[in-house]
Amino acid sequence: MVEKLIEYLLYEFEHQIRNGVYGLTQRELSYNSNRIEGSTLTKKQTAFLFETGALTSDGEIIRAKDIEEMTGHFAMFNEMLKTYNEPLTEDLIKRYHFQLKSGVFEDKLNGYPIGAYKNRSNIVGDIQTASPNEVENRMRVLLAFYHEKREVDIVDLALFHAEYEKIHPFADGNGRTGRIILYKECLKNKILPFIIHDSNKVEYYYALNKAQNENDFDSLVFLFKKEQDRYHDEIKSFIEGE
Helices 154-167 & 174-188, crossing angle to 10 degrees? Predict the structure, then answer.
């Protein structure tokens, strides 16, 4: 099924067909990944923005940053599709971050590096993230360890994701780049991809914390597999003609 998914995604992306599995994935992944990080855009607004490049507010206040980051996520997903079969490298991850953040005015105003590692320390809950001068070395170690795997499975993806989020290499956008990496590496390794849904945000953060603090990855792997089943149900009619 993964081979057919890739075929459909690439064809629909190339021909800008937005009512199939490509459009569904763009909307669902961008909406949920941004929503996890605090975006206020609704599913309907996300879909309208993706399909028309515009929004109607109906008198409600819409934050410019939410729009900029949503359109940036659309661009990052497209960049991921162009490069899904390439080896995962620091430069490629930085390219994803650039696509996500290059149009976000607030980040530029705050002096956040775009498409480059963070230049100031950041904090995530009770996790001690890497300091700016540690990031490059820790990312190289993580990628070297990851590339030692002859075959990558969903457990390996859980290990990588937990460490990547613990390093927290960018000033902002770490969760979204981390989750696009998961989708990319699923495609590359012929693993059914998945989308972490905002409705599972609490479970996701709990599982990440357990992996990072206790070296227990069972909850994170369980969530990934649960989200695989959900994504399969969402796309099977497009892929299998059911």
Answer: 160
Condensed to tens digits (0 to 9), the pLDDT of residues 60-114 reads 778 899 999 999 999 999 999 999 999 999 999 999 999 999 999 999 999 999 9
Q: What percent of the chain has pLDDT over 70?
A: 98
Please name the residues in contact with 55: beta carbons below 8 A apart, sequence gap of 6 or more.
45, 48, 49, 62, 67
User: Both tokens of residue 53?
Assistant: 């490049």
Cβ-Cβ contacts under 8 Å for 99 (sequence gap 6 or more): 72, 75, 76, 78, 79
Question: How far is it, in rounded angstroms, from Cα 101 to Cα 108?
Answer: 9
Delineate the domains of the chain, giving CATH numbers in brackets: 2-240 (1.10.3290.10)
Alpha-carbon span 226 to 229, nearest angstrom: 5
CA 14 to chain centre: 21
Nearest to 98 by CA among 201, 190, 173, 16: 173
